[in-house]
Amino acid sequence: MKEERLSRRRLLCGGLAAASLGHPFLLLKAQPATTTGTAATSGDRYPFTLGVASGVPRADGFVLWTRLAPDPLQGGGMGDAPVDVKWEVADDEGFRRIVAKGSAVATAGLAHSVHVEVQGLSPARWYWYRFTTGGARSPAGRTRTTPGDNDEALQQLRFAFASCQHYEQGYYAAYRDMAAQPLDFVVHLGDYIYESSRKSHQVRRHEGGIPTQLAEFRDRYALYKADAQLQAAHAAFPWLVTWDDHEVANDYTNDESPRTADPAQFLAIRAAAYQAWYEHMPVPASMRPRGPDALIYGRHRFGRMLDLLLTDGRQYRSHHVCLSGRSASPLADCADRLAPERSLFGAQQEAWLARELAAPPARWTVLAQPTLLAEADRKRGAEHGYWMDGWDGYAAARSRLLDALAEHKSRGGNTLVASGDVHAFWAADLRRGDAQQGPLVATEFVGGAITSEGPSAASVANMLSKNPQLRYGRADRRGYAIATLDARGATVDFRAVEDEKTADSPVGTMARFSVERGAPGVHAEGS
Predict the structure, then answer these.
(1) Which residue in 89, 239, 220 sits closest to 167, CA to CA?
(2) In this predicted model, what pLDDT tens digit does every residue of 338-353 receive, in sequence order?
(3) Is the pTM of this model over 0.90?
(4) Residue 9: Cβ-neighbour burial (10 angstroms; 0-12, 13-18, 19+)
(5) Could you give the CA distance from residue 489 to residue 331 in angstroms, rounded to a whole number?
């Protein structure tokens, strides 16, 4: 396919030919609501170019999101004035029965984004929502409340988890497929945007260089969120979101970045990146950053079926060790990586996680965290080598986490670990103590990457041969995972795109696994 730079006009006109992709939520960009008035300072330009989204579902409500951006790749185009935005929630798709409505103010300080925290609704049911401003109406989105905390009536729960969606490295056909699935919600595990570019295998290109200022991060998010297939998946289900490194800078740890030597300068970049993340995510005001800090980890309960523990693996982690330079990419080993004080989550988040795992368990616990948790000796031959930016660089912290998962299991807990980051599909047995022979405490699945290029087949084969706890690995396909939970067990499907370089590529189930309730461990069911 000939490389082509997407023009702003093509982006805003639905350049991925959304109307031909065959699913109602993929018509959102192709058929925007008719503008019958003027949207405040935006003239007669349509303001809902970035779509709509919902997130952080609760039993009585959820967060609704949109951003007014008639000129999304040039700062939004809304000027400095605040704008009133009306919102409606209905319990039918045709909006004949409005059950909640109100207005919010979109301000320039938050890029004219809107975060509405809806309350007072009924648990465990679907709702539809939309926004209006100045006579322009947004596309409609669909979302869902969770069952009540003690509701045991839920028979099955189905959700997708995804990560790593480098815009330049592929189209979002995986999201087209996701939008058509019968899901209850979606979990995004980070690398929603990429700050850096790749020179090879580009099918489309970033606008501008590496962002370091707030305006630049806003434009990068706008570029990604203008994609029709990503908008469709946001409009179809509520999302839970966390971040990894590329939302700020590759391989950053706490206040240190391989790219920026001065920690104070890097924290200013982190503050801009975190604010832009908040402005573009369906999250509540409690997650709004205060300078370079934001509290985004937490528990999300779905009746008695599921406790989902969503974590932050970047903001609090200890700095890299065992490396002679600033890059975390070379494989290394040294005594420092085993130091007991080293933490990937930070002391406060570790303590929170331990408390949550000590509480009475739901039928299932899902630990949603950024990167491969299982030990992975990656060096070829007899030598040992580990990737210091992964959990192997935080071995003592991983041991503490696996101990907590073992105690959780002893109280009847059943844990799945949903992971991202490493651009490959993995299924792994998690064992306490010895990674290969210790007692099984949980099962891990890494859901591939939406588009980001993966490691070589030789690297995957080497990891599988040296690490028998890694039960399945594949990195030649892009995609995401779907988990289905019920009272008896769990199944996880790896959904793979045939060709991420093609916007309308077919997507299918590449592998399926099952986990029995009360008996952790990977069981392959074939493709």
Answers:
(1) 220
(2) 999 999 999 999 999 9
(3) yes
(4) exposed
(5) 37
